Amino acid sequence: MKNHRVPQEVNAGSMADIAFLLLIFFLVTTSIENDAGLNRLMPPENNEARAEIKERNLFKISINDNDQIMANGEILELPRLREKVIDFIDNGGLPMQSREYCDYCKGESLVDLSEHPSKAIVSIKSLRNTSYPVYVSVQNEVIGAYNTLRNRESLRLFNTTYESINSDYYNEEITDNQKEKLKESLEIIRALYPQKILEPETINN
Amino acid sequence: MIKFNKMSTGRSLPPISTASLPDIVFILLFFFMTVTVMKNQNLLVENTLPKATEIDKLDKQDRIIEIFVGQAKDNHNTNLGNEPRIQMDNKFVTVDEVGDYALQALSVMPEHLRSVATVSIKADVGVKMGIIEDLKKRLRLVNLLKINYTTFEGDVLDN
Fold first, then answer.
1. Residues in chain A closer than 8 A to B130 (CB atoms)
2. Sign of the CA dihedral A101, A104, A110, A116?
3. Interface confidence: ipTM more than 0.90
4. DSSP B71-116
5. Are the beta carbons of A16 and B136 separated by less than 8 Å?
6. Over the stretch A72-125, which tens digit does the pLDDT of each residue have?
7. How far is CA A54 from the centre of its chain?
8. Whole-model pTM?
9. What span, in angstroms and rounded, lies between the C-alpha atoms of A126 and A106?
């Protein structure tokens, strides 16, 4: 006779209300963080190291107080900066018989641009009254130039873009084995086009 | 007069079951619970970030030191002036104090994260480079060399 007694059901009608309350609380408190940006590594403060670099291996970008951009002695607009930087890095200016000849560069081997991507240094200089968005844009274009070149080499060597390798590497779901492999390919590409961006201190005028 | 309830007088439609409503709401709830990052700082400064395209995600919040730079919001205090101000740790700090506050933020981090700590510079679009350079100099003095110019994603030509 026991089986006749059906246990009383709990009324779940108010569950929706409770869930709604929680939902609204989280909706209100949520701010989906937009944290993304341009990563840079600054040089240590007390660095006494001096390196002699050739004029041709340095690409000087200066931004003045009126946010005008000058690259290697030429005033230009922001959209053209990226191709200029690419031309500079990818120049491969050494003669073919030289030991350090850059065999993967596709540049025009001009005499006044860089000898080799590993020697190419980009310097970004700003003044105190330069506005921050312009500075960030210039940084962005220089990093973009490096990324374009790295993508090209990555497509040639590994058939995927540098960005996709990079994002796969930071993906949590891959095995250690895969990770090791990706790291290797990343390092190969980074060695081909190492990012050398100088940010000299602003001089008061 | 037109009768609207002509139909319902006869065969009434079966009521729509709301039994799955809690489930739907719960799914939404879990979504928001997982994506929510509680704001631990009240913004005291204007903070519209510039735009950039070549950005890396700063997904791990536990190793980030945030610095906000921008004009003081006028609803807080009208006598703060128009000069850009630095906000760290929920209050205004001067340029000279930045290093101390950064070290303080570093010291509460777990030991294994200290070497990978990144300073996220969240500067407003109206800020000039002078204060950013000062900031960078102070950070270099305390050997916090990994910085991130935090931006929105978007075309740089809109900046």
1. 128-129, 202
2. negative
3. no
4. EBPTTT-GGG-SSEEEEETTEEE-GGGHHHHHHHHHHTS-HHHHTT
5. no
6. 888 988 888 988 888 888 888 788 777 778 888 888 888 888 888 888 888 888
7. 26
8. 0.79
9. 30
